[in-house]
Amino acid sequence: MLRIGNAEFEDKPVFLAPMEDITDPSFRYMCKKFGADLMFTEFISSDGLIRDAKKSIQKLDIFDYERPVGIQIYGHIPEAMQQAAEVVNSACPDLLDINYGCPVKKIATRGAGSGMMKDLPLMRDITERVVKTSKFPVTAKTRLGWDSENLNVQDVALLLQDCGIQALTIHGRTRAQMYKGEADWTLIGKIKNDPQIKIPIIGNGDITNGKVAAGCFEKFGVDAIMIGRAAIGKPWIFKEVKHFLKTGEELPQPGVLERIEFAREHLQKSIEYKEDKRGIYEMRRHFNLYFKGIPNFKETRLKLLTAQTVEEIKILLDYIEDKFGNSYIEIPDTEYII
Predict the structure, then answer these.
(1) Catalytic status, residue 216
(2) What pTM does this model have?
């Protein structure tokens, strides 16, 4: 059994990765519905938290049904990160996660996110301050290194462990790769099996189905896996993966009618939490993938992705049910990374 702080998990747990503009309460609700064992908020700017910025403060909203749930923060100024940790204390998450992995230019080139991998003394200062300040267990998420010439994640792992973090998630790409190419799990496995490493290691990158997940556990020995982009528009992936891990069997993909019901439920949660306009806008990326694989769907998809009101979307979902309800979802062959 895996334990991080007071949170306990059964064998081979499956986590939801923190993703900006994705892992809001409505999406987390759907992922929890399908069995995500641990979820994280969107990453939150330390500067935004200490300035009491509305959007940053709103991201602290977590709910009891989500637990265990972690809040993730990022920044490159030690004092600001320490103050942000104090603000997070008031939200009472199960974990506080530090983002040392975001590759986005405006964040990494300022020295935050994966940019911190180029300044390990600063990483140590920030981590020690956050661990000291947080009332809750601190974890971190990082990458393999800045680029292929600087794969320093092993040094990073030992440093963070020394600072007192209680688990480390490693995304199997460098900052330079962004999200391109294949994730390399070799270093993740090497760190997990390093006798100097005593904390849980969570692997992340290119986990798209149960067979891939099983391979990651078996070949690299990680304590947990984390799913990110593969869950967008497909929150049922957690149910699929966990079923495969337990039985070795693949679940059938949900049909069109099931996907319509999932989309309706997700939309309702989105507009409950946000104003209609923002809720609709942020649902579009999910809608685009909820109905991926329906033949002759291009025109309907365009209407769905340009609808301006909740009522328009509900009418379109009714139309999809009537016209495409009996359609067969065309699932492309998946290339396995293991």
Answers:
(1) no
(2) 0.92
